[in-house]
Amino acid sequence: MLDDKSLIDKVKAYDEDVNVKKLQHACDFSKESHGTQKRASGAPYYMHPLEVAHILADMKLDSDSIITALLHDTVEDTDVTVEDIEHHFGKEVAILVDGVTKLAKIEYQTEHTRQAENFRKLLLAMSQDIRVLMVKLADRLHNMRTLHYIKSPQKRARIAHETMEIYAPLAERIGMQQFKNELQDLAFEQLHSEARASIISRLEYLRNHGDINIHDIVSEIRATLTAEGIDETVIVDGREKTPCSIWRKMERKNISFELLSDIMAFRILTNNTSQCYQILGIIHSHYQMIPGTFKDFISTPKENGYRSLHSVVMGPRQRFIEIQIRTKQMHEIAELGVAAHWTYKQDRQYNTDGKQYKWIRELLYILEHAPDSEEFLENTKLEMNYDQVFCFTPKGSLVALPKGASAVDFAYEVHSDVGNHCKGVKINGRIMPLRTQLHNGDQVEIITSESQVPSASWERFVVTGKAKSEIRRYVRAQKRQEYIKLGRSLLGKRLKEENLKVSKKHIKNALKLLNKRSIEDLYASCGESLLTADEILKAFYPEKTFKKTRRKKPFAILGFNMERRKQSESVPIIGLKPGLAVYYAECCHPIPGDTIVGVVTTGKGMTIHTSDCDMLANYSSTPERLVDVSWGKTASDTGFISRINVILSNESGSLATLSNVIAKQKSNISNLKIVDRTTDFFEMIVDVSVKGESQLDNIIRSLRTQKAVHSVKRGK
User: Fold this and answer.
1) Sign of the dihedral defined by the CA atoms of residues 8, 13, 14, 19, in that order
2) Is 513:479 a contact under the CB 8 Å cutoff?
3) Of the candidates 400, 224, 194, which has an alpha carbon nearest to the alpha carbon of residue 321?
4) Contact of 465 with 380, CB cutoff 8 Å
5) Out of 61, 175, 358, 547, which could bridge 65 as a Cys pair, Cβ 3.0 to 4.6 Å?
6) From the CB of residue 476, how many other CB atoms can be counted at a distance below 10 Å?
């Protein structure tokens, strides 16, 4: 059983100069502060901070971090104050403890809002000292190890979700792979216990039948390297991938367990970088490499400092295996990440400032510009969860982005001003649409213009939190100006009707009465219909009585919506009840040839959707409203509206090409809307009248052959 003495002995083993008296005082202070408090397991509460301290001592962290771990819950859960901590243990420990301490729960907030607020505070604290995050991760790890003692399934699920979405990605971003793997697997056990049990049983089956024999494979790889002159100081080991890692790969590749190729990973730890590449050549010459699986994270390290060579090969016993090759120093950083830099050294002078990490600076930027905690949390999740693609600027600088990132994401990654003013892009020397997804090795040149501003449509295809945050900020500012302009007009008109003028005193009183900071806020509220002109008028002149004006309904911008025709018995659909009114859903535009589902609405009839329509998820709790239907034979005689999304080159005659192709396929354009326009391309939504799926496919195929058409796909 862990105790104070074992902790002190563990720290003394790597730090001969540790202040034993101060460390023992921290143990006693924590034990006394928590008193008779108990954990959900029934154990004394003090055992939790002691366990957290042991986790950090295993990583050889400095004594201030160990003391912080011992005291991290005292301010939140006892009568101890930050001032008390500073008095007993110094300012540095006090700052660390304050940073780790969670916000007090605010009952009127939603759980999601509390989570977001806690994360904001954690980010600000770790930007001042990265050790705050290391202590917090150790705290979360021990909480996850003991999560099964919590009786409420809802609470366990909430904590597991938070761990999977926030803390495991944070551990990965600072390179603490061991923490990340254990946090993910413990959360996976709570969230998907059946899937985890199934994967474990399949792994056990493979072990029992000899399909997984890590020891034999390690021995064969070792023998292969020895035969090629590689000395015994090079280490070879192997492991099964964690159930969570296997499950994620199955989800990402959309394949079953049986089709998964690399459930085993083998590491080769070398003495220097050149030996890494030498061993890679030996492995590839003896075992067939699987094309597209080689990754060189030594020449292009991950943002968290991870460096290694990865390759999947057809290994011994004709098994697919993943091989990772790196130096022993790279391995230490791969496992412990930033904590590897804290391994005790007599003369170290470490920079604890979290802002030195680029990704933390970007999260702080998002925090500064996010209007509320929940949007901040959404954008930071985008920043933390991703696989990377590596692209290059024209000057050869490397830019790491999430998979699926577009040219606009690249522009914002280079600089916010570049993103805000980008009007076009050259990818590998060729002009391409801004929405184009980037791939490893792409050279990207952003074309900017001072007159260009962010488009709201960009938000549909960008994937980084920084890009989304910037676009939303601009759109909010633009909308606010429109609301201010409209509100000023409405209020001015109302004042003119009453033949009144407003002084500075009137404005000051109205702002105080309506709790607004400025006259612009007042105008914006009026333009947004949060306040009526009459309500503001009454705030200007509280003593006057005004005749109430009839409030008009706010007029909506309908955008691109068409009235769909109704059909009854003549609808060529099998499975309908006689006399039932039928509508075609505008969300998915079903046409003959599609697999369809009917949704019954009492008093209105039935709406027809395609079977893969996203809207059907809304009816999962009322499956009785879903009806199996299909197209009848007479469907081809009826015209149906379908939708396509097209990106055209912005050149003379391109629109004519579009309309001519559609006309040649004996179809007609029912409606058209341009949703985005740049110097080189414009994107549009086109509604076409077709008799069925085959005619629509012919239109799409024909358009794809045209030089003026960059891309075309069926829309929803």
Assistant:
1) positive
2) no
3) 224
4) yes
5) 61
6) 12
Q: Return d(Cα 585, Cα 26) in angstroms, integer.
A: 66
666: helix, strand or coil: coil
What is the CB-side half-sphere exposure of residue 128 using CA atoms within 13 A? 15
The span from the CA of 695 to the CA of 592, in Å, is 10
The span from the CA of 463 to the CA of 384, in Å, is 11
Q: Does residue 76 carry a catalytic annotation?
A: yes
The pLDDT assigned to 211 comes to: 65
Per the residue annotation, which of 77, 165, 296, 332 is the catalytic one? 77
Confidence (pLDDT) at 560 = 36
pLDDT at 578: 66
What is the identity of the amino acid at 676? Answer: D
Q: What are phi and psi of 159, to 5 degrees?
A: -65, -40
Separation between Cα atoms, residue 130 and residue 119, nearest integer Å:
14
pLDDT of the residue at 187: 92
How far is Cα 640 from Cα 689, in angstroms, rounded to an integer? 5
Task: Please give the full DSSP string across 591-653, using - where no structure is assigned.
Answer: -BTB-EEEEEETTTEEEEEETT-GGGGGGTT-GGGEEE-EE-GGGGGS-EEEEEEEEEESSTT
- Spell out the alpha helix ranges (H) of 370-464: 373-384, 407-414, 416-420
4 in catalytic set: no
d(CA 431, CA 407): 11
What does residue 307 show for φ and ψ, rounded to 5 degrees? -135, 130
Extract the residue ranges of the chain whose pLDDT is less than 70.
1, 102-128, 210-212, 252-256, 258-262, 337-387, 546-572, 577-580, 602-604, 620-621, 623-624, 633-638
Give the SS3 label for residue 663.
Answer: helix
**Active-site residue (options: 28, 51, 64, 76):** 76
Let me know if 623 is exposed, middle or buried by CB neighbors in 10 A (0-12, 13-18, 19+).
exposed
